[in-house]
Amino acid sequence: MLQFLASAFLKLFGWDAVQGLPKFKKYVLIGAPHTSNWDFVLAMLVALAIGLRFKWLGKHTLFKNPFGYVLKFFGGIPIDRTIHSSVIERVAEMFNNSERLVIAITPEGTRSKTEFWKSGFYYIALNAKVPVAFAFLDYENKKIGVGDHFIPCGDIDADMQIIRNFYSGIKGKRPEKQGEVRVRPKVND
Hints:
6 helices, 7 strands, single chain
């Protein structure tokens, strides 16, 4: 029933839900572009419409009550970045301890324009040995859903080119807030 209602709601507002879910039991799902608070609402609707169950990472400060319970119900996992253990290792371990797990991450990390994407999603997938799938919100064409995927090879520059190719031409609600699809270059010591 929820699936039908979510699909109907998306159609009512002119959105086309694209379903390209990978057949894997475990993967990292990156969502881009992320330029508006509406992205979360639309992501939840399309997830219901296409039958996708996922967890997502968020700053622990978002999970204060009373809304903390609601966010956790909708798959939220609070991440306290002040704890000095590696988020990448903790999330990779979650994959290793799960039979089935999809974790959604917005690599831009914020709704504001950023110079670089955060690379954590990549290293989580690489360490957990799981694919990366592409979720998208194309406000210009009113298409939303999950498209292609790839398995990280360990060459982040080559893999980022795959991601750039997928997201080229996809426009967020506020395109002026979209950053370039790239990660911060590593500094050699």
